[in-house]
Design brief:
alpha/beta, Rossmann fold
Length: 272
């Protein structure tokens, strides 16, 4: 029997709800009795033995005794803190190394190629602001050199704090000796702050001598002085500070390694 023209259509089937109460799909088919057809109640479920649990998938982690299911390896947990990115985080970095290590060139390159504003603060440049009575490094160490370095470090530290307070990262470079902790790292920590990240650049002596020979002016030292400074810098080994041997690395490659070292230092700061 067909539905009469104009008669109301049966209610649509909604996913997840089953047939509408009092309506059977049989009413759609010719020959089915007209009117509301009662839907029989579901058959009773007899209790039986509980089903065996499905074996865990080879790819799904097994829960522990508390019911916690650990995420698969490499998965990102929503809400978990992410490791800071040294390329975009405001940082204060102290690059340590002997004369000829390339620390000034690396510091300039690193500051130039970051995605956030970064200042390069060179201790030697600040020292050379003193025009009359300048302590010439080639003349050896004396009281004037001591005073000039102390004033330059204090000035650099003030500049670094000023940059950081305005959201600008900074990288400083200095030949800090491990056997003078109060004047060296201790002084920089007081001037800049405890968040300063020190990194040592220490290539081989032959590389340092070769690079020093390419220098001009009062920044070029004698081979004997370079060897003496390099020998004192070897005390950084075993100090806990990260050390980069850039003997076989160019400036861009050293800057990339510096980023990797800083990422580790930000996650687990060195003890100094």
């Amino acid at each position: 029997m067909q539905h009469a023209v104009g008669s109301p259509l049966p209610p649509p089937h909604q996913p997840g709800h089953g047939p509408a109460l009092g309506w059977s799909p049989a009413a759609h088919h010719p020959g089915a009795p007209q009117g509301r057809v009662p839907v029989p109640p579901p058959a009773p479920v007899h209790p039986g033995p509980p089903p065996h649990p499905a074996p865990p998938s080879a790819h799904a982690p097994a829960p522990d005794a508390t019911g916690h299911v650990p995420p698969p390896a490499g998965a990102t947990v929503p809400g978990a803190p992410l490791a800071p990115d040294p390329a975009t985080t405001t940082l204060a970095v102290l690059l340590i190394g002997p004369a000829g290590a390339g620390k000034t060139s690396v510091a300039k390159y690193w500051a130039d190629h970051r995605r956030v504003p970064t200042a390069h603060i060179s201790l030697d440049d600040v020292r050379e602001w003193v025009r009359s009575g300048f302590a010439d490094p080639q003349a050896g160490w004396n009281d004037n050199s001591e005073t000039q370095y102390r004033l330059a470090r204090r000035t650099c530290g003030f500049a670094a704090r000023n940059f950081l307070a305005n959201g600008i990262s900074c990288i400083l470079d200095d030949a800090v000796f491990p056997d003078r902790p109060v004047v060296g790292l201790g002084g920089w920590k007081r001037h800049v702050g405890p968040g300063l990240l020190p990194v040592v650049i220490l290539p081989g002596l032959d590389v340092v001598l070769e690079r020093n020979a390419e220098r001009t002016g009062n920044r070029r030292l004698t081979d004997e002085e370079v060897a003496r400074i390099h020998g004192r810098m070897a005390g950084w080994y075993g100090s806990g500070l990260p050390i980069i041997d850039n003997s076989q690395l160019g400036i861009p490659e050293t800057a990339r390694v510096l980023d990797e070292v800083l990422a580790r230092s930000m996650t687990s700061p060195p003890k100094w």
